[in-house]
Amino acid sequence: MRSSVFFRSFSFVVLLSVLSCTSLHRDKELTALVNPFVGTQDNGNTFFGASRPFGMVKLGPWVQYDTAGTGGTLRGFSHTHVSGMAGGGNTVSGEVIFMPFTETVNANKGFACRYRHDGEEASPQSYSVIDAGHRFRVSLAAAPRSGILHIQYLSGDTAGLAVVVPRGNITLSRDHITGTDRGVSFYSRFSRPLTGWQVWAGGHPLPQARHYEGDDLQVLLFFSPSGEKSLFVGTGISYVDTTGARGNLLADAGPDTGKVLFDRYVEEGRRAWNRELRRIEIEGGTREQRILFYTSLYHAFMHPNLFMDADRRYRSTNGKIYQATSFDNYTNFSLWDTFRALHPLFTLIQRQRTTQFIRTFLARYDHTGRMLIMEFNGVEGTQPPMIAYHSLSVLADAFVKGIRGYDTVKSYEAMQQLADDLHRKGKQLYLDYGFIPADMKGQSVSRTLEYSYDDWCVTRLATAFHDTAALVKYGRRGDFYR
Question: Is the CA virtual torsion 280, 284, 288, 289 positive or negative?
Fold first, then answer.
């Protein structure tokens, strides 16, 4: 059943396992209390494919809903998604798109098909759907840096797979393909050998070759006949290069691609999600209330995302490649949305990851001279969206709760730099007047309040460092909200 997100008052006992992984019910199957379809109706924008907690790969359907709510249009299965973003959780991102076909097709007409919600099944670790014409069933599972598709061809005389590359390149060989789609590199291998391919661009077929590059590439792959009419496709992705994508698939999957690997991904995913969901245990309430609670916790563990390859290389916001030798690099920090509640929750139940998040902030400070403000898929412009600079709030909250494992001296330095940065809109007015006049800059109240709060956060570290001058400076700004 699909549902919009809704809230109602209910009471249960919440038990936090903060300082250890000790669980009152270690074998409790909490993934059974997660309904990935909650929040997906209309513009709910929550992800409902296969993933791991905080994983790089979010493998799921790339869909467009109809207004009736019974189904929609299936346009493919992509390896990257975001969840909860106002712009559309299942249409934003969407790189490395695969789509099966079972008959001779004209790539110029596209590969979209209809599907119904009663043909879908989902859990945190897997997803499956059958198209409305009963031509194929696709099942998905994911590891931290790779995903696997199991395609069952139910009708038709062709076992085909389309690869959609809106902007990038692809290189083809008998047992694998590799390429880059809008900055996301991929390496895919198949359980059955390729018998041939056709490539279209801009609605026109291209001559036979092994390498193609350009815009609007539609790659049609054809596979040898199989009595089981099944195809498994394992894909690693990387934001560094295709070497990283291949290494990520090997690190997750080893040499296998097939049912054994698919089942292993599902089981490992189930265990990983149970381990994270057990960080909070509840007692009481109705089953529906417990489902809403654990589905919300599942959504909380979607982002930020691991953003480095198995060899620990990653691409920073300055476009350069670095090695994360002493920390785990993350991305998708929508901090204006998450500083109020999500990150404070993480300081209670994801303390070790919070340390890694702060180390990521400081890496960006090293690379660009500024801690991140709102970063998506490793990219942040000179004017990030929304207002204020809430990495200061995340850092101060973690610091006062005793979370360490990062350079506190550098953190204090980076906080002051960002608090004094004049690039945020209306910041000079805020400093000149002690508030932002409404007739001089929009969102004046919100900007004043959030700038003031973030500046006050600097005083949390200034107190610990006995920095009287900073306490006066940022404490005065902390009163600007008045």
Answer: negative
